Structure prediction request, 687 residues.
Amino acid sequence: MKRHIPWMAWMLSALLAACGTTGQPDGGESDIDEGFDVCQRDNSRRDNVDPDWELTAGGAAVSGYVCPRGDEDFFWFNVPEDGTIVKVHLYNAISLTGVDLCYRIRPQDGHVAAIGSQCDHDGSNGVTDITGTFYLDKAGKYFLEVYDEGGDEQDSRASANYLLTITTVKDPDTYEPNNTADQAKAIGGAKGYISYIGDQDWYRIDVGAAGQILSLQLATSGPAPVDVSYTVYRPDKLTPINTGSVPDGMKGASLLKDILQLGDAGTYYIQVTDAFNDDSDLEVGYTLTASVQANPDSRDRTAAGNNDFRNATALTSGQTVSDAYLATRGDQDWYVIQSPGTSDTNPALIEVDLNCQTLPEIEPAVDLIVADPRTPCTKDSDCDLLSWNCSGQTAEFRNAQCPSHECVTASNKCRGAGICLPGGCGIRTLIMRHIVDDQNPARDWAVPGEPRHLRTVAPMFGSAYYILVRDFTAQNADLQHPYTLTVTVRPEPDANEPNSTFQPYATNTSEEETKAWNAGFATTITCTPDGSGGATCGPFTGYISFRADQDWYKLEGIPAEAQNPVNQKDTMKDYRLAFTWSYGGNSDMHVTFGWNRPGNFDDSYGWSVRGSGSGTFGDNECSYLCGEYHGGRPIFFVVQEYQRLHYDYAHPYEITLHVTPECPAECSWCTPAGGAWACPCTANPNP
Prediction:
């Protein structure tokens, strides 16, 4: 049963019900509260236009019940004019009920899908109060059906009745009808409104030349139920360029801005909606503004621009680009530089300097990308994986095997750059950006004190390198200020390269975990016997020629005497390792030297020196290969920069290493645990 009652009367009936007065719910018996109220049958039927079930716009609230399970109440109303907006309000005053109230509106023709609906998905978590507006394009009769969302709940208590009202509203949106791209309107000075649920407002903007920039702003003056959202479409009316939305319009005034690169000339479209298509607003509305202007970056004034590798701007070594802009959101500026004959076995150096200091909104990033000849591809290849295999127990060890520095463990393959370049799938060998990390400053590629100025030197492993300049977040743009970019290709001065893997994101942990892998790239140094049982290794020279460079050397010919298992009383010889060094370059360098034995690379010893100079290490220190323990050969010698920040491609270092059979006067690691030294010497001639 349903009743037409004003609000105060309904409140009184609810209070009386609480005192024991029974109402008359429609439609059968309740099995959840039997003994208090009994469901009563009614004559509500689909497509019935009985006057008892008519709703009047602006009239008194209609009351009803959902009982028994599966019950639906079928109301109807009349719309006298085309293009009417109807506002539906369905509510109750009970905070705990199993019924999840819903309604739907459909036209009189029962074969036509519902125009719209709303539900309270959980009637047990508070009172139901749902309001929706719907656009009815044709005059005539419409049906409004009230039901439980799942059709599996009922509530016959008198206090569980619902109330239902409808009103008709004049659409405040003067742009209507503009619900499709074909109905799109030019943007004027008036507000627009998402005036009913599912409303779509389409606008058009004419662009007379290719390579233009669209600047738009979508704003509301205060809180509103609509979570405003926009999408910009290409002239085909189907292909989106970009979209944006606010997550919750009720939190305050909304403001969305965008600056987008347009391609060809033509008519572009802007669609404004509610982000979730479940709210409407007849009071606050929104303001949309849009303008078109020429791109300040001349490279982007064509339809293609230089926004992908196919249209990359060619650079010559040492050339400075000073008139380039990240002028639009998501702008990508691609460049390419050639270095004939360069490969991963014959590397060069690439020096990159990107200065965005005048661009306060930009978080600059530079990607270096090269084709992988080992992973051929076609234009349809996804290139997400390279042909390189990678495996191992630790992530650091697996990643070190990949030129892209990332192993995809699910496939044991190295990560690709996702693009097919001429010559093979792309390898992203480096991403430069400003990162604040006090624990690992090597993650920061910015010049100290200049967070938007990136600079580095990296190894170059291919004849064509692509340089991608972008805003890392892809959210910001700057139409006012250009950036400067200089890319220089230099010959690799170190004839030993490559004698390690390139690990631009190395940490102390990853360096330790990847020693065994790097040893496989070491340059062999053949040591010469000195006639006294020892040997001389070198002199040999090298360069810390790029950031994070590690130079590995394999010292062959160092004599060895060892016993396995170890005997505390033995005559195996110990060998002192001492070396002289010289370096006359970058005063910021903090060069470290160290030797490692094969097998257990944790068994090592190292030294460091700041700035330039020369000297000897190992002559007055416990720098020994102990006969009882250190029998593994060859010995590996490593030179690198301590912070993995500095480099010097102009000045070499020189190393000469001397090995002499000698018993250490004092060296704890050459002493068998709990026993005497097991090295023949003056203090212990016959152990």
